[in-house]
Fold this sequence. Notes:
Aminopeptidase, single chain, about 35% helix
Amino acid sequence: MVEQPVDGVYPEYWEADVVLRDGGTAHLRPIHPADADAVQLFHTGQSQNSVYMRFFAYKARLSSRELKRFTEVDYRDRVALVITIGGAIVGIGRYDRLDDPTDAEVAFNIADAHQGRGIGSILLEHLAAAARDNGIRRFTAEVLPENRKMLMVFSDAGYDVQRHFDDGVISLEFTIDPTEKSLAVMEAREHRADARSVRDLLTPSSIAVIGASRTWGTVGYQLLEHIIEGGFTGPVYAINPEALELAGMMSFGSLADVPEPVQLAVIAVPYEQVDSVVSECAAAGVKGLVIASAGFADDGERGLARQRALVRNARSFGMRVIGPASLGIVNTHPDVSLNASMAPTLPARGSLGLFSQSAAIGIALYAASSRRSLGLSSFLSAGNRADVSGNDMMQFWEDDADTTAVGLYLESIGNPRKFSRLARRLARTKPVIVAKSDSMGLQLPPGHAVRTTQAPAGALDAMLRQSGVIRVQTVEQLLDVAEVVAGHSLPRGPRVAVISNSRALGLVVADSAAVHGLEVDRMIPDVDLDQGMSLALPALRAVLDQALDARTVDSVVVALIPARGLTVEKIAAVLAEAAVAAGKPVVAAFTGILDPAIHVEGILGAAAPAAAPGGPGPAEGAEVPGARGIPGFSNAGSAVSALASAVNYSQWVDRDHGVFEEPEGCRVEEARAEVEQLLVKVTGEQLLALDQTQTASLLGHYGITVLPSMGFDTADQAIAAAETLGWPVVLKTTDPGLRHRLDLGGVRLDIEDAEALRRDITTTRRALAGYGSPSLEVQSMAPVGQACVMRAIEDPLLGPVVSFGMAGDAVNLLDDWAHRVPPLSGSDVRDFIRAPRASKKLFGYQGLPSVDVAALEDLVARLTFLKDTHPEIALVEFNPVLAGTDGLAILAADIKIGNPARRTDSARRAMRG
Length: 913
């Protein structure tokens, strides 16, 4: 349920940490009467011109009456928000409700020193969200013509702004309900700000290691050593109050003693000292923190609370935080050469970006990538993920020219709805590979804090697939796929050629390819490689070129057993040359040779191959770091599995993703007003079940009709109801567990007259006596059709989740559900209907006629749009939906409202708390 402000009660849930346009951070909160002195200080610090622009006149100080009016608000009719950095107010935005209760006048004032950082835009977004909470739908503003910066704030917000000029003032008016354009503007601004903040962390101009030690093997010693030996291109400062010299350079007793500005602080001090060190960094103007110190996760709830306070303090002074318990960060670009991590050496430069949460998994990722000689562009270990997350890294990687593919190992997702949105956008240009802990949402890693999930099993994986993510289970599988997609051509389709020097091995590979959904176009299982290098290599190249030249071949799997006189390096060189020349992927499996990737990767310095038409890849003529060699594996199963993942991803990229369109005839505002009226009846965390009339009314606003039914107490009442509905009718119980059970006597079909109805009422009541004699109802007889079930819920972690399946044993016993996370495009809806295994029954199964699938797709589109629009609706269930050959009928609908969870990805920019 969206929280509603209470008159005079401070709405704490409006508070948010935000990222500014230049990557810095700030804190946004409602104003408070105690802010009077801070507001006066803010006002007196403004230039005469800024004061004039705000008040249309110059005033050196605000009167006590003005301060009282500006700081004492009711948070409903009068609202003011402030943005602070280091506790000082740097921006104020406010609205005052007008005579029309749906209108409000809005005004802003931004500190001179902080103009151009996007503060006005952020204030407008949050004021609009607060106003919508209070029933306001339209903002007006009066701006002087010369105040171009403020005019730009309004015009660039994505709203349809109407302008009028009168008496030397420009009057603006616009509706504040989110639009496709305004949401796109917000997302674009969020993307630029988040990407900039991460870029500043990965490309610091200077670094201080706080807690640097001269004791070999300590974290502080290793971090300082790795930064220096990695060749970091900027100045490095060692901070240790007990040492004058560290790593051959002068040490400083405190950060305040460093003579030059420090952009990034790497913190490796004991747990008890972290808070004071962060405060020192804030005082010194540091922009980012990497906290390697652990201990927060070991201190239970107290540690978690302290961790949150640490992040709030850092953000309030404009700092982003990586960690705590972070393994560190890496940037292999030669202009940076940053190895601020526990990895002993700077990884080879490549095009793969990696993100992990726990240090242990980070070590595993680094070790596995090094063993394979798989070059990296950047690496970040988030540790407890208290601030910087995988979402932030995806924002950065989207614009990073050095990164062509990304891999993330996730143990928890703080905001899956936002993750889905970002991953979908990134995956359209770069492969996104995700290895995820299956315990997510059930057993959180220590130090992590996210909402728990109540979504059905498989919903999160469905969300990832829907977003174009390549889902894997392990670190090794993540890197298997990365070898195929990072810096190499993507397969244009599923057709594969198999080449081998062993018929038995070739057949195994062909079988494995078929199991993974690949189409074996041709198999060449008898290449002779035992004829000496001078003959064997040209023969292999000729066979390979012939397969790659075929229009019906999209990729090639070469599976080889050891051959006399041939080294892996020589074979790999031939395969890589052929792959680059053809612009098609070639993967190799060297069976019987341990860890061939050590020898395979990095053999050739070939220019990056072009991407498949329409797919992601490097620009024409560009040279991508790490785009060399071929993907090499020690077993054919891994090679085929990784290639199949690349094929599925390539097909996702090439598909028509469609657009998110509002179904015709939806009356959103009327539905919203009705939901708000119903919410009055909800208290606390209870759920309100709507009755039949309320359900029909709410669904009617979205063009959804439920077949009417009427309850009764006596047989005469039942007959009267049947006469009203029209014969024939159905008799059924209202018990949700029995009303679909024909076998248990809960349903009687095709009753054609009063006598039959009386008889069936007696029989049904006798059959249900053992179940507590539930009440009965009659309903119009629907045409025959395939019974389906649709369900939509509001999950505390995932947000809206919709589910679809064939009613009966398919969902009840076999759990054959399809799940999706709205919003859904037309192609998403189409795939959704076809996702359950039993969905074959919709398309002429065993000679039966196909159902009206278009009607099902229309109903799914309306249901998902309804659920996406109303987070207050906790549950909608249609069970059953009878899909006939011409249309469908919903026989029963249940709706519950009042879910207390607030949606995590709303129409306002805010950092994860």
